[in-house]
Design a protein that fits this description.
The protein is of the alpha/beta class. The protein is 35% helix and 24% strand. It has nine helices and ten strands. The strands form two sheets. The protein has a six-stranded mixed beta sheet, sandwiched between helices. Strands 2-1-4-5 form a four-stranded antiparallel beta sheet. The chain is globular.
């Protein structure tokens, strides 16, 4: 296969493209300059960089929640200019409504879709089953662990049948044992053949988490920030964070970031 054939194949598989993206905060601080990247279907992609570089802001730009100064973002070659129901954002805070059951929390994402009550219940139950919460539909958030509540948030996102899922530090408020258990399941949950999901973009400070989940990693650096490198992760799944190969690649990520103390802190 020639180089041109590879380029053509990538273009066919591309689900999102960012071209010459620039963004400035209202106070005049320029966050991003000339960001370019491409995300292909069936990829779990992470974006990393030092604290304060603008990773969460970048997710909001991808989702159409913020408008860039210049440049364009495309989803399947259609320009994103406002929030799009085919792109769903999961916040770092675990968002469940305490007066609603797990099933009712998931159904919130379906209210704009003009479904019957029966259709809403079917899709919400199916989403809860995909995240491992079959049989817990009637529990209220106070009766769930943090990991269960985060699974409800993921089920709510999947029930909306998006093409892309944006995840902003989704495990940050979980204890490490709960987070590790959810990380072990999350890739298979998100790329379940029963979902419409085609790609995931994660931002996280936890590089072990990033390496455990990602197919590709984009690193942001400089002021204003731009993409300085892309790393392809070819480690076999399921990944073992204790393996020598995993830890060699983890060290490589820290080296690329260039500031061990800031990242680890």
């Amino acid at each position: 296969m020639s180089l041109n054939d590879n380029i053509h194949e990538d273009q066919l598989n591309e689900i999102m493209r960012v071209e010459n993206l620039n963004f400035t905060y209202e106070n005049g601080y320029k966050v991003f300059e000339n960001i370019n990247l491409s995300i292909n279907e069936n990829k779990f992609v992470s974006v990393i960089g030092r604290s304060g570089i603008g990773k969460s802001t970048f997710l909001r730009l991808l989702g159409g929640f913020l408008k860039p100064d210049s440049g364009n973002i495309y989803l399947r070659n259609k320009r994103i200019t406002k929030p799009n129901p085919q792109i769903v954002l999961i916040h770092q805070s675990i968002v469940t409504f305490p007066w609603m059951t797990a099933l009712e929390n998931v159904k919130i994402s379906l209210k704009s879709k003009n479904l019957t009550e029966e259709e809403e219940n079917y899709r919400a139950r199916k989403a809860l089953e995909m995240v491992g919460l079959q049989g817990f539909e009637d529990l209220y958030p106070k009766e769930m662990s943090g990991g269960m509540r985060q699974r409800v948030s993921i089920a709510r996102a999947l029930a909306a049948e998006p093409l892309m899922l944006l995840m902003d530090e989704p495990f940050a408020h979980l204890d490490e044992l709960t987070a590790e258990g959810l990380r072990q399941d999350i890739y298979n949950i998100l790329f379940n053949p029963e979902t419409n999901l085609k790609a995931v973009v994660l931002v996280s400070h936890n590089l072990t988490e990033v390496l455990e989940l990602s197919d590709e990693i984009f690193i942001l650096n400089n002021m204003p920030a731009t993409v300085v490198t892309k790393i392809e992760v070819n480690l076999p799944r399921p990944r073992n964070p204790r393996s020598d190969e995993f830890n060699r690649m983890l060290d490589q990520l820290y080296t690329y970031l260039g500031s061990f103390s800031n990242i680890r802190g």
